Amino acid sequence: RASPQAAPAVALRPGSVEELYELLETLGSGHFGVVKRCRERSTGVFYAAKFLKTRRCRGSRRGVERAQVEREVAILRDLDHPNVMRLHDLFASRAEMVLVLELMRGGELFDFIAEKEMLSEEEAIEFLEQILRGVQYLHARHIAHLDLKPENIMLQEKDAPRPQIKIIDFGLAQKLEDGVTFKSLCGTPQYIAPEVINYEPLSSATDMWSIGVITYILLSGLSPFQGETDAETLSNVLEGAYEFEERYFSDTSEMAKDFIRQLLVKEPLERMTASECLVHPWIKPLSRKQAAKRSRSSINMKNFRKFNARRKWKV
């Protein structure tokens, strides 16, 4: 557990990243920049360097708005938890910011699970519990991630006996302040909560809806609100229209369904919090009988692999 006296905030360095880091191969690239593997010259430790082209004003079409990157950095600088990706170093010039981040060698959690022959609910819960601990930490610091989805849940190392989960990508994250409402139409249709679509105030409960969706997919390989089009998906989310189809949930325990039901609730205040999830009997069994049900119930692996393959095609 991270102590309240978290690590000191990362200082912003002027100058070039290459003075202190050797830049290696490109790991990925997006609309606004590139991510490269790098090696810290002083320690030999490998990290991921995220280069973000920044622009000063909204009118410019090049790069990310400077204020947006600064918001992401301000959030990342103060985070120190085993299940949240850490910012290690930070460089800034007039036209670019470079974030030196913990390197995720294990890839995405869903890809890791898709390679398994079999997975019991008990094993799935080990991963889910780590996600919940990371989210609980963020929410205790009044930070809402607002983009929780399989692509943003990574493994630090794949081959560790108990792989460690890391929540990544704080590009949409918000520091929630008392008395200040925050609204935003952002996120990925099948994971966003009704209040996002309705342009209503967002809160930490918005993340809890996404955890409900992720859990549903993890157990069944089905996305609860996915329609033929984005418009249909959004309409399904607004109606809260989902069900536990017998052919996909035949090996799912009642406790797991109850867990999902308490998250996919239209009214944000009625959803379980991350702390409540961690003491729900599915996550933390109250009896031997409950624990036994979890180890006997299993994930629909055949369908989960199909879902994961389709997800890859869309990205």
Automatic annotation (TrEMBL):
Domain Protein kinase: 21-283
Name of the top EC class for this enzyme: transferase
InterPro entries on file: Kinase-like_dom_sf, Prot_kinase_dom, Protein_kinase_ATP_BS, Ser/Thr_kinase_AS
Cofactor section: Mg(2+)
Listed EC numbers: 2.7.11.1
PANTHER family (alphabetical): PROTEIN KINASE DOMAIN-CONTAINING PROTEIN, SERINE/THREONINE-PROTEIN KINASE 17
Family in the record: Belongs to the protein kinase superfamily. CAMK Ser/Thr protein kinase family. DAP kinase subfamily.
Protein name according to UniProt: non-specific serine/threonine protein kinase
Native source species: Alectura lathami (Australian brush turkey)
